[in-house]
Hints:
- The protein is α+β, with helices and mostly antiparallel strands.
- The chain has a six-stranded mixed beta sheet, with helices on both faces.
- The model is unreliable at 1-5, 14-62 and 130-137 (pLDDT under 50).
- It has one domain: Aminopeptidase, CATH 3.40.630.190.
- The protein has eleven helices and 15 strands.
Amino acid sequence: MDERQSAPTTEEKKEYRKPASKKRRKKKASPEKVLAIVLASLALLLVLAALSAGAFVLYTGSLHGNMFAARETDQMQKVRSQAEAAATPSPTPLLEQVDADWIDSEGRPWNRKENVLTVLLMGVDYMGKASHWENGQKNGGNTDVLALLILDLDTNSAKVLYIPRDTMADVLALDEEGNFQSMLYTNITTAHSFGDGGVLSCELTEHAVSGLLCGAEIDRYVSVDYDAIGEINTLLGGVEYTLDADYSWIDWRMTEGATVRLESWQLRRLLSYRDKSELDGAYRRGQRDLKIMRAMFEQFKTAFREDPSVAFRMYSALEKYLVTDLSMDEISFLAQTLVNIRLDSDCVINLPGENQAGEEYVEFYPDLDWIQTFAAETFYVPAESNG
Length: 387
């Protein structure tokens, strides 16, 4: 098991201080590895899964009832219990006096909003290997792409919070038997790697993202293996995209400002490219991929309206790449909600923070004051208003 630094205090995090870390084993790159930059398909992917499986089921019920109720596997419940037992108790007298879900750093109590849904979207890199434990070596895969889809049903609006893979966060580290080992402060991408490459990995990542966002409730998740990107592009007939920079080194036609219909090999090259000489190279890559994501999202909606059967073909092709805890009712509900929402540039939010060079990897220290303000505005209401 790799050794990483245990979690620092909140104040240390706010000062963007790098924790003293022990050297981590550098993962070997597969010759066929495409650096899992599938943010282009992530927000789209939920729509694909939703429309594909549930597009022809008209959902007429309300959001309430059993839909989107809290759901957790027995394994994750065990891990959470082990982590809570190992943690040092911290006094929270205000929570005992006020009916609140969260107390901010200034002591103000908050309760969770109703009618806000969150779906965690993950692009996972298994480095060309099976996603399982083998001979004591883990390969749960890293979430090289991470975004949170936030739907406000009261305003019929959507936000996509892009979380850089190098974001420093508290992560539950497990041993080979799946038992809690320690709480680490490390790159959030590694949360997935401590699991089984499937459901447990997704739940571990949910836990890390929720902790990062002041305990915000993560309702559901959709995870996709990066290998899906080629099939998505083929089924869409090639994503049409206007290039924001010169990529003629990929193909002579891919010049800045040109609008091209990308072949799958071109798309893979475009998505995987990052300037390793730049500290924010991975971050810039994520921004480019967000633009491609929106192009794919709009192109799929157009194709679906022209020929609804494309949804079934898409689902058949993608099912083997997906891990999700969405039920059929939830899928149907989201299908009808998402198809009427446009993902424009204003809905994409980039988590702010500061990049620092680690011993081997970039470490992105998020702005915790910004996170607290964002969480209060997006996920919570003052406790007294729920009276």
